Amino acid sequence: MMVRPPESVEVQLDLELVSVAGTWELNNTERAAAWLHVELITRAGVAPLQRGLLRAAMTSLYSLFGISREALRRYDPDVAEPKHGKECNLGYLVVVMLNYAVRPVLFYRHPENRRDRSVSPLDHKRARDRTDELRAALDTTWKHLAAYAGLLAAACGVPALGAAIPTPSQP
Q1: What is this structure's pTM?
Q2: Cβ atoms of 145 and 48 closer than 8 Å
Q3: How far is Cα 47 from Cα 29, in angstroms, rounded to an integer?
Q4: Taking Cα atoms as reference points, which of 58, 68, 47 lies closest to residue 163?
Q5: How far from 114 is each of 55, 99, 105, CA to CA, in Å?
Q6: pLDDT top residue among 36 and 171
Q7: Which residues pair with 86 in a beta bridge?
Q8: Contacts of residue 106, Cβ cutoff 8 Å, sequence gap at least 6
Q9: 11: which strand partners?
């Protein structure tokens, strides 16, 4: 049985740095492009993090930029069509997701300072170790991306496939 995709979806995203709320009136191009949902939920950075996978999670999150840009290019300006003065369209929502949910956590990858030659590389790394802080930031990012993935699933007229991802027990 074919599910009829909705004409509109209510948007309520609170990304801490910015909130987006309103009604997203979908066009056919946006419905097709919203299948970006599958790319989103299959990223290592979107599923709950297992120990030792920080690098994989960060790389996976970074890849969302290329994937999202490609989707926006493929579907042309139809995904950013203004609708009666409302800002809710797929183009806008993708840019908000990338800039306010994904980009902030990626800054953890950048070195904050150069190592003083009088300090050993190991001591320098330990002094700058932000693993716990990064894990906390990733937890927040996953929550934001899960909400975003649910929004895309609703736009496609499918169940939120991300809900099917099992949450493994921590050792």
Answers
A1: 0.78
A2: no
A3: 27
A4: 47
A5: 21, 27, 21
A6: 36
A7: 83
A8: 58, 61, 62
A9: 22
Question: Coil, strand or helix: which one is 162?
Answer: helix
The residue written with tokens 């919203």 in the block is 34
**Does an H or E element contain 105, and which?**
helix 103-106
Of 12, 33, 16, residue with least CA distance to 88: 12
- Residues ≥6 apart with Cβ < 8 Å to 130: 108
Q: Can you spell out the DSSP letters for 36-65?
A: HHHHHHTSTTTSPPPTT-HHHHHHHHHHHH
Roughly what angle, to the nearest 10 degrees, separates helices 54-74 and 131-156? 30
In angstroms, rounded to a whole number, what is the distance separating the alpha carbons of residues 133 and 137?
Answer: 6
How wide is the angle at C-alpha 161 spanned by C-alphas 159 and 166, nearest 5°? Answer: 130
- For the stretch 109-168, pLDDT in tens is 544 556 677 878 777 666 666 778 888 888 888 889 888 998 999 998 888 766 665 555
Which amino acid appears at position 116 of this protein?
D
Q: Which two tokens stand for residue 150?
A: 């649910």
